């Protein structure tokens, strides 16, 4: 996942840049990013043994894509989101859940509430925080038997033959972004994302599960999705516009204005030592 690779290079950079990286595409992120399968959420709750009155701290909730399915289960949630734009959307999306509090703060700047939470949740988010901050601070926020839950969604990809057709456009406008990940590759990438958790030495009983999901995107929604991915955000505006126009033409003419995509979702759950 290119977003993950991008974040690794940002640990030493200005916190303000990291906090606002997605601000310009907050609405697109809210509309187009894939959702977490309900079965995945249910498994998380069961494996973390969360009581019905559990308190959850969510790191980097964005517009609330993972927040809502946990809120629907009635949990008390404190959700941290550094981007004001995403924070506004999260509050809108969670307005009907009185047990959810959205705070406009980064995890780094959040004042630690020691041993308060049954679980700390990070949904495709913890990689934006330096490991030396993310894991010790998460452990300190957890109660003695609390769990760290890391949810992940990989980028949706079309079938390989469709990718090969779209690749013609990439080779013209942005060859560095041309890449393909099949299901096996996505699963391997996601599995490795638990290594920092293990290396921290602060958690035990690590469990990893994954599942494949499928979704159909219109041309507009697919381009909206791409606009939320870090490599596309980082493109020069003119290059991005040319790439998207080429992709639009290809998808409209060759695939009737929609693409059937698949992606892998996963979680890591570990208990505080």
Characterise the protein shown here.
With 273 residues, the chain is an alpha/beta fold. It has a single domain, classed as 3-Layer(aba) Sandwich (Rossmann fold). A seven-stranded mixed β-sheet has the order 3-2-1-4-5-7-6. Strand 2, helix 6 and strand 3 form a beta-alpha-beta unit. It is globular and about 55 Å long. The N terminus is likely disordered.
Task: Describe the structure using short key phrases.
alpha/beta; Rossmann fold; 273 residues; 42% helix; 7-stranded mixed beta sheet
Question: Oligomeric state of the chains?
Answer: single chain
Based on DSSP secondary structure assignment, what is the total number of beta strands? 7
Q: Which consecutive residue ranges, at least 5 long each, have pLDDT under 50?
A: 1-7
What is the general shape?
globular
Helix and strand sequence? HHHHEHEHEEHEHHHEHHHE
- As a whole number of angstroms, the C-alpha radius of gyration is 19 Å
Structural class: alpha/beta
Q: What is the beta-strand fraction?
A: 15-25%
CATH topology: Rossmann fold
Cα separation of the termini: 30 Å
Residue share in helices? 40-55%
Main-sheet strand order equals 3-2-1-4-5-7-6
> Total helix count?
13
Within CATH, the superfamily carries the name Vaccinia Virus protein VP39
Mean pLDDT, as a whole number?
92
């Amino acid at each position: 996942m290119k977003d993950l690779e991008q974040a690794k290079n940002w640990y030493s950079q200005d916190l303000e840049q990291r906090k606002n990286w997605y601000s310009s595409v907050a609405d697109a992120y809210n509309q187009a990013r894939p959702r977490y399968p309900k079965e995945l959420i249910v498994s998380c709750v069961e494996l973390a043994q969360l009581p019905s009155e559990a308190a959850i701290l969510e790191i980097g909730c964005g517009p609330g894509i993972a927040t809502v399915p946990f809120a629907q289960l009635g949990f008390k949630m404190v959700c941290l989101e550094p981007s004001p734009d995403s924070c506004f959307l999260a509050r809108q999306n969670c307005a009907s859940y009185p047990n959810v509090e959205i705070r406009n703060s980064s995890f780094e700047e959040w004042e630690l509430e020691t041993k308060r939470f049954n679980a700390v949740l990070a949904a495709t988010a913890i990689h934006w925080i330096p490991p030396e901050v993310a894991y010790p601070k998460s452990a300190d926020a957890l109660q003695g038997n609390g769990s760290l839950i890391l949810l992940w969604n990989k980028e949706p990809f079309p079938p390989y033959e469709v990718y090969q057709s779209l690749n013609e456009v990439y080779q013209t406008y942005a060859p560095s972004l041309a890449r393909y990940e099949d299901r096996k590759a996505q699963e391997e990438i996601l599995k490795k994302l638990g290594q920092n958790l293990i290396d921290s030495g602060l958690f035990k009983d690590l469990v990893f599960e994954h599942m494949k999901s499928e979704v159909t995107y219109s041309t507009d929604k697919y381009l909206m999705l791409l606009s939320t991915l870090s490599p596309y955000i980082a493109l020069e505006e003119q290059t991005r516009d040319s790439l998207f126009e080429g992709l639009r033409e290809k998808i409209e003419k060759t695939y009737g204005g929609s693409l059937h995509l698949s992606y892998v979702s996963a979680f890591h759950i570990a208990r505080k030592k």
